[in-house]
Amino acid sequence: MAHSFNQRTDLPVILEPKFKAPDALGFSRWLVGMPPWALPAVAVLMMLWPIAGHAQAVYSAEKIIDIMLKWLPLLLTKGFLMNVVISFFTMLFGTIAGLFLGLGRVSENGAVRSISWLTVQLFRNSPWLVLLFIVMLTLPFEIRIGGTYIPVPDWMKAVFGLSLPVMANIAEIVRGAIQSVPSAQWEAAQSLAFSRRQIMWQIILPQCFKRMIPPWMNWYAIMTMATPLVSLLGVTELVTLSRQAMEAEGNNPSLLMPFFGFALLIFFIYCYPIARFTLRLESKFALKG
Fold first, then answer.
1. How many CA atoms lie within 13 A of 232 on its CB side?
2. Which single residue of 45, 102, 184, 206 has CA 20 to 30 Å from 248?
3. Does pTM surpass 0.70?
4. How many CB atoms lie within 10 A of CB 239?
5. What distances in angstroms separate CA 81 from CA 73, 87, 147, 224, 252, one per listed residue?
């Protein structure tokens, strides 16, 4: 008697769960996915809103434009440039520390793996602003080396505070890149009598660099967007100088939208090309990797 293997059953069946890994380039995809004119249009609308709406028109349209042009050089050279400097040094320190922390995540030593895992989980899941406050309040204003006093500026403290979550996320990028290398690479190197350190630094990591560049650039864009957080701690950057400029001009509400609209515009102009280049590199390495 023939039996059919396509019969249906009402018995419960446990299906294999499907997990979707988080997108490492989510911010860049979101930024590039919107129309290129969207955020600039919002920023321009914010800048022109007091002029178009005549909101509490203490200042005329010409006066608002003159004020913006007067403060523009300072906002760019002393304000936004500091945001770029903070993001650069944050990524520098965070990448160096994250590289070694990521290597600790794949170490053969169980204690090193556990400590590295705990460190990553702690700083990945801690609020950035809380970390900034802790670092700002615990680090001294100056360091004494022998008879020499070396000042520690507020912006450098902010760099150390922001480097902690960046370090943890870069560590996960490093770990993921190392584990994505086929195991045959390890086996082939071991068969040639390479030590684990030689395998890691001479064979595995060189293959990981191109895998790590797109998510690293994605995090650089995120970090640049996050640098205005340091204004809450009194660090002089774009948002801080914008508030000071508005106070110097009488703190009129009609200046609020133009100044912060300009901040939104300049951050978009800086980060949008980075996001596009990130996705371009990902596509290039995916085709050749």
1. 11
2. 45
3. yes
4. 22
5. 11, 10, 33, 11, 26
